[in-house]
Amino acid sequence: MIRLAGGIPAPWRDALDGIHEAVRLARESATESAVPADDAFGLLAVDGAATDLTVAPREEVDAAQRGDAPYPRRLDRLRSICRLTQPHSVLIGSRRVASLDALAGRVASLAVAEGFDARIVNALLARCGVAARRTDDDATADLLAWILRPHLAPPAWAADGRLFDAPRDGADRAMRDLGVRTGTLRAGTFPFVARDIVVFRLTDHVVVTHVGFDREAAARVVRALDEHPAALASTSTGFGFHPASAWRETAVPVHVGAMAYARERGHLR
Fold first, then answer.
1. pLDDT at residue 77, as a whole number
2. What is the C-alpha to C-alpha distance for residues 3 and 203, in angstroms, rounded to an integer?
3. How many CB atoms are closer than 10 A to CB 54?
4. 211-242 as b/e: b if 16+ CB within 10 A
5. How many CB atoms are located within 10 Å of the residue 45 CB?
6. Termini Cα distance of the chain
7. How many CA atoms lie within 13 Å of 102's alpha carbon, on the beta-carbon side?
8. Do the beta carbons of residue 56 and residue 230 sit within 8 Å?
9. With contact defined as beta carbons under 8 Å apart, do 8 and 40 qualify?
10. Phi, psi torsion values for 233, nearest 5 degrees
11. Measured between alpha carbons, how far is 74 from 63 in angstroms, rounded to an integer?
12. Residue 188's CB: how many other CB atoms inside 10 A?
């Protein structure tokens, strides 16, 4: 029985749902196990072997491996099963201020869309010179953040708020410190996008396990994804598994079972 982390943010929850379906189609079994509320992506639970699998942005796994806040220490028992791809654009905007520069020198209030972890936005804003504190009141928040996901309706503020470009200096620091790239959201992509906007993009995501996870079970998870890619693609966010690049930039070492499968199938040489 493979234990999947429960309660993680929605876009990555979709990926776990896809893994659950792939494992089912491969005639394996999986169950969900709860993780503490303060362990947003379940990485602490996985590191301690309280659960077996989670999915998180590569940038979050990097932070966990380094022991950056809020992690109390380096999570050095984490191992990767594989990398998944799906570009999630992080939109940052406001109804109250004209630019990020207007928030310099004070702590801004930040509201994030439901199911999206605020720490990622906080880390990006910090690279842009803005300190922020989470609030649940999007009507009075200085800043609003949302992760653009395929097939899901935007929050109400997207239509009447001002969307900000990722500043060049902040983008450079985000790339240097976090490995987060930027991209352009083209005008007209959505009705609320009236001009081209430079956005942060979370492109790489990691299926994470722990060093003690059974070697054969790790190989079975990868085999299930390799043989049933449509299970991932059918989720609302359409994560992709691509064998040619699935073991690059995974933030933590690849689990021996996943590595053995990749080599056996000729995906790694």
1. 97
2. 25
3. 31
4. eebeeebbbbbbbbbbebbebbeebebbbbbe
5. 23
6. 30
7. 11
8. no
9. yes
10. -65, -25
11. 9
12. 10
Kindly list the averaged pLDDT for each block of 10 residues, start to end, along the chain of length 269. Answer: 88 88 88 84 95 92 88 95 87 91 90 73 90 89 83 70 90 86 87 89 91 96 92 76 87 95 87
- Distance, CA of 60 to chain centre: 7
Tokens 């659950």, located at residue: 20
Which pLDDT score is estimated for 237? 66
d(CA 28, CA 168): 47
**The pair of three-digit structure tokens given for residue 71, joined into one six-digit string:** 């992690």
Q: In the 3-class helix/strand/coil scheme, how is the chain assigned residue by residue? A: CEEEEECCCHHHHHHHHHHHHHHHHCCCCEEEEECCCCCCCCHHHHHCCCCCEEEEEHHHHHHHHHCCCCCCCCCCCEEEEEEEEEEEEEEEEECCCCCHHHHCCCEEEEEECCCCCHHHHHHHHHHCCCEEEECCCCCCCCEEEEEECCCCCCCCHHHHCEECCCCHHHHHHHHHHHCCEEEEECCCCCCCCCCCEEEEEEEEEEEEEECCCCHHHHHHHHHHHHHCHHHHHCCCCCCECCCCCCCCCCCCCECHHHHHHHHHCCCCC
Q: Tell me the two tokens of residue 44.
A: 């602490």
Residue 116, token pair as written in the block: 């999206």
Q: Could you tell me if 5 and 51 are in contact, meaning their C-beta atoms sit under 8 angstroms apart? A: yes
Confidence (pTM): 0.77
Residues 6+ away with beta carbon under 8 Å from 85? 203, 204, 205, 239, 240, 242, 245
Name residues whose C-beta falls within 8 Å of residue 27's C-beta, 6 or more positions apart in sequence: none
Residue 122: left if φ>0, alpha if ψ -120 to 50, beta else—which one? alpha
> Nearest-CA neighbor of 252 among 59, 118, 19?
59
